[in-house]
Amino acid sequence: MKIGFIGLGNMGAPMAANLAKAGHSVRGFDTASVVVDGVEPVNSATEAAEGAEVVITMLPNGDILRKVAAEVIPAMEKGAVLLDCSTVDVDSARDVAAEAEAAGLLALDAPVSGGIGGASAGTLTFMVGGAPEGFAKAKPLFDIMGQKAVHCGASGNGQAAKICNNMILGVTMIATCEAFALADKLGLDRQAMFDVVSTSSGYSWSMNAYCPAPGIGPHSPADNGYTPGFAAELMLKDLGLAQQAAEGADADTPMGAAALALYRQFVEDEDGRGRDFSAMLLRFESRGRG
Ligand code: NAD
Which of 20, 145, 214, 288 could make an S-S bridge to 38, C-beta 3.0–4.6 Å? Predict the structure, then answer.
């Protein structure tokens, strides 16, 4: 396939490289000049989009996505697929999809989970919103860049799934960290705490697969000085998107709001920036109630 790839950062570069390695013809553009193995560099988003059967975007936020989409949509051929893999607000995803469809294109929002490791290894999970016809066209590309693609329904539903999942993740990570800090203060050994909770009703992905306590459970960023992994500021971004969506939809999300406030404090005032989101444990273990 002829593919245009726009946004060759930490995630986009390895995703584009995997598509090229699989034999697709990939033209890449990033505002920072980036060189990616097997990807032909071009000088603008429009140039990447011209003649492409699929244009993939992997960008920082919804405002940038809207700007890039306004440039590439007029340059794309009718029937081509605009496939956004960034994590953005649901409204931006739906507005961009509506503009693309009005121009005769197929549009998909397909945010990912799996992080930089998953992008490099081609093991991402895609949560996809948009028409089934677009999903079918993009499926071979999902199979190269990832291990799983779930079609979640209409445009915007991929982003909805992503922020709901990450709202649960943020809340459960905080709950796991504060429980470890409480257990410490009660004199409970961390290994014993893990052995009980990971096989009891408090278990979760945060405890069982990504334990925030160093030396406990499977290998995780806690065992690597809390080097991300999934950075605290990315969790902050996703929790912000969840609250933005909740306000728009009049959904009551008090735990999500509390998680947003704690991650904001952690990133902005408590040395959390640049650390994995599980470093939240350091915050709780160093504090009392006051
Ligand atoms: P990044 O900042 O490394 O990459 C974004 C890239 O977009 C940069 O290289 C930047 O130069 C480029 N860019 C910005 N404006 C542009 C424009 N107008 N035209 C072309 N290129 C432009 O970010 P990332 O970590 O690769 O994340 C990309 C997206 O994936 C984000 O939406 C993020 O929330 C999401 N995401 C990231 C992770 C992760 O672990 N890093 C995990 C899941 C989802």
Answer: 20
